[in-house]
Amino acid sequence: MSFEGNSPPLEPVFNEPWEARAFALVVAMSQAGHFTWGQWVETLAIEIAQAQAIEAAGGKPASYYEQWQSAAEKLMIDKGMTSVDQLRARRFAIAVSGPTHVLKSG
């Protein structure tokens, strides 16, 4: 494959807008010092391993950015940034009003 110039052709990295927001949120929280990038990598690796185990057992694993979202939620809970109850309340509110200004419903 040859490219004109120095860059390969640009392709979408995110399938849905919420995926880009989830990515940006994690980067911003790490840069703000809420957790280290190493802590993030470790937490995401656990989510990926769990998804791979589900797939190996014949199940349907979460998508990559669903894994990303789950890892972010777990890290935010572990760091005291939110709670399970707050996340449940947010999901309920989304189910009632729609996901207009949030990462993703579900």
Question: Can I get a quick summary?
Answer:
The protein is mostly helical. It is built from four helices and no strands.
Number of helices, where a helix is a run of at least 4 consecutive DSSP H or I residues: 4
User: How are helices and strands ordered from N to C?
Assistant: HHHH
Q: What's the end-to-end separation, in Å?
A: 40 Å
Largest sheet: none
Radius of gyration: 16 Å
Which residue ranges are poorly predicted, with pLDDT under 50 across at least 5 consecutive positions? Answer: 101-106
Please count the beta strands (DSSP E, at least 2 residues each): 0
How confident is the prediction overall: mean pLDDT?
A: 85
Estimated share of beta-strand residues? under 5%
How would you sum up the global shape? globular
Structural classification = mainly alpha
Task: Give the proportion of residues in helices.
Answer: 55-70%
Question: Would you mind describing this structure in some detail?
Answer:
The protein is mostly helical and 106 residues long. Helices cover 60% and strands 0% of the residues. The protein has 4 helices and no strands. It has helices at 17-31, 37-56, 64-78, 84-97. The longest helix has 20 residues, at 37-56. The protein is globular and about 45 Å long. The termini are far apart. The model is unreliable at 101-106 (pLDDT under 50).
